[in-house]
């Protein structure tokens, strides 16, 4: 077995939502079929900021990497050589790096698969973004820039003070504490983090997000819907809106909501650092990784009682492994467990097996990852002892997994794989259908290519790409319930666990 593909597997990410939110729109669509119009030039650009040589260096690198690593030598039925001939002359004419990304995204979109996108270098290096803003918009020549600018240690003009605040939305690792889901076609607050800025501002679950910095949310959703369709916009819409709500620590964002009586509520909410541990992985910017667990006594409508453990985490990154182990240890005497993967866009693929070992009593496989010339099985070995040396049996009670259209990649590998083993029941709605393992490669410009390197099928042959993980119990979030503080899918999962616990 070749070492390079396997090494790539353990550097695999399923961050399509992240890639979408920090690149050109639709950059990670699983069914995008972009034509040349998507690469139309920005008419406000007056000075070419990228040479033809540099533009082609990035473009050729992207084409070659996909050509050499794509797991399907037929390229999903696309004539990949013809794509180079079609798009390369357009790439050569690109006036800016942003325009080049659009051209390259257009070519990648023709594959019609998830996990292909260009991540700008500025997401990992905010200073580079400030420098690029100076090039593209010539802030350094404005009076306000000259009045307050200073030279940093590298001799670059410090221009952060003159970057309009709207351009800082999405540029930072602080947020408002709001989780958004698309409910009944609208952006609805699904949860508000305790003690967050949104919490203290009085934001409630069930409120509809109307605009962000005077950008009408419904208009943004409609544009996305026209491009992707209803089924595929969920993860993209949530990623796009969540990104706009993020920014630098201490910055503010003006937002408008409709409350429970559909009265407009205008707020300006300050951002604060996200909870959890920040992790730098590969060529991506630092990301907040946090896991929480709780225990709840629950009685369903039939009077059946259960002690239920609930585990939630936002992304599959290395720090969640020891936290998940600790959670399973603390919740080992519960009647059932709920694992909430809603809005979880994926992460390190191998962690799906690491988590699964706490839930199975015998050896099994979540599925097989097939690369060009190599295969890797995601085998699951039952836990025997904790990392701190204490015996621990795998959890044997009922397990419910919550998912929605924002659950992608490793979340789908885990849910689909465990579902195929018959070990869990899935509650919620269909997952994103973006389950291709991917690798990351830095391009000559410093941008990063996210590209699918493998296919994945479960032990029963189920494939989640496009189709997603189909829930055992289809349960949608409802705004009227959220306004009353009721999480409908979670309630359904709790009721099922109580029923199973009573039957035992």
Distinctive features:
504 residues; alpha+beta; Pdz3 Domain; 4 domains; 6-stranded mixed beta sheet; 4-stranded antiparallel beta sheet; 15 helices; 22 strands; 31% helix
Overall outline: globular
Largest sheet properties: 6 strands, mixed
Class per helix and strand makeup: alpha+beta
**CATH architectural designation of the largest domain:** Alpha-Beta Complex
Give the strand line-up of the largest sheet. Answer: 12-13-14-17-18-22
Secondary-structure topology with pairs:
Layout: H1 3-9, H2 16-22, H3 52-69, H4 80-92, H5 97-109, E1 117-119, H6 126-137, H7 143-148, E2 174-175, E3 178-183, E4 186-192, H8 197-201, E5 208-212, E6 215-216, H9 217-228, H10 233-245, E7 252-258, E8 264-270, E9 272-273, E10 277-279, E11 287-289, E12 291-299, E13 305-313, H11 320-330, E14 336-340, H12 351-356, E15 364-371, E16 374-380, E17 399-403, H13 410-420, E18 425-428, E19 438-442, E20 448-452, E21 455-457, E22 473-474, H14 479-483, H15 488-503
Parallel strand pairs: 13-14, 14-17, 17-18, 18-22
Antiparallel strand pairs: 1-20, 2-9, 3-4, 5-6, 5-7, 7-8, 10-11, 12-13, 15-16, 15-21, 19-20
Structure description:
With 504 residues, the protein is an alpha+beta fold. It has four domains: 3-123, no CATH class; 126-168, no CATH class; 174-273, Pdz3 Domain (Roll); 283-503, 2-enoyl-CoA Hydratase, Chain A, domain 1. It is 31% helix and 22% strand. The protein has helices at residues 3-9, 16-22, 52-69, 80-92, 97-109, 126-137, 143-148, 197-201, 217-228, 233-245, 320-330, 351-356, 410-420, 479-483, 488-503; strands at residues 117-119, 174-175, 178-183, 186-192, 208-212, 215-216, 252-258, 264-270, 272-273, 277-279, 287-289, 291-299, 305-313, 336-340, 364-371, 374-380, 399-403, 425-428, 438-442, 448-452, 455-457, 473-474. The strands form seven sheets. Strands 12-13-14-17-18-22 form a six-stranded mixed β-sheet, with helices on both faces. The chain has a four-stranded antiparallel β-sheet with strand order 6-5-7-8. Helix 2 crosses helix 10, helix 4 packs antiparallel against helix 5 (97-109) and helix 9 (217-228) packs antiparallel against helix 10 (233-245).
